[in-house]
Amino acid sequence: MRKRFSPPASSSVPAIPRPGEGKRGEAGHVGYLLRQAHAIHRLRMERALADLDVTPPQFAVLTMLNAYPGISNADVARLSLLTPQTVSVIVTNLEKMGAIARRPHSIHGRIQHLDVTEAGRKLLTLCRTRVQKIEAWLLEGLTAAEEKAVRRWLGGIALGSEAKEHE
Fold it and tell me: Which CATH class is domain 29-165?
């Protein structure tokens, strides 16, 4: 059995701060704070959706397919911020679950349109109820103006990255 490393009592090794403290809090780099917030958000999503046998990426794919019916795998990948390979696996699994259906493109034989089925809409409704509770927790304590500012800031970051790609 391996012995865990413990610094000597007289060591000058600093204590690791808890999330929200030190460099993991307001004194931290913004990029790190975004990553930390994303990690806890993803963990909460995983836990909230687990008993429905839905993963956060599957929820994202279902959400985008419901919002933009008939789009292709490639479009879903771009919208849900996932790789085409990941979306391919997710689509196959969602189809096996009966949550989505494929239909051929009228002109391009290799392209398939994806649609959420009635069972998929019911599943998405269950998922959304849980996700809305997580989002309410995220926004807890913010005024409407602060929430709008956060949404504008996050959207602006996304828009800015897209503009940089086209330079």
Answer: mainly alpha
3-state secondary structure of 83: coil
Note whether 40 and 31 are within 8 A (CB). no
Single out the residue of 52, 50, 59, 46 nearest to residue 116, CA to CA. Answer: 59
Domain range list for the chain: 29-165
Nearest to 80 by CA among 69, 65, 70: 65
Q: Which residue has the higher pLDDT, 73 or 22?
A: 73
pLDDT digit string (tens) for 77-122? Answer: 999 999 999 999 999 999 999 999 988 767 766 778 899 999 999 9
Amino acid at 97: M
Distance CA 156, CA 69 (A): 26
The strand pairing partners of 158, in sequence order, are: none
- Tell me how far apart the alpha carbons of residues 113 and 70 are, in angstroms, rounded to a whole number: 5
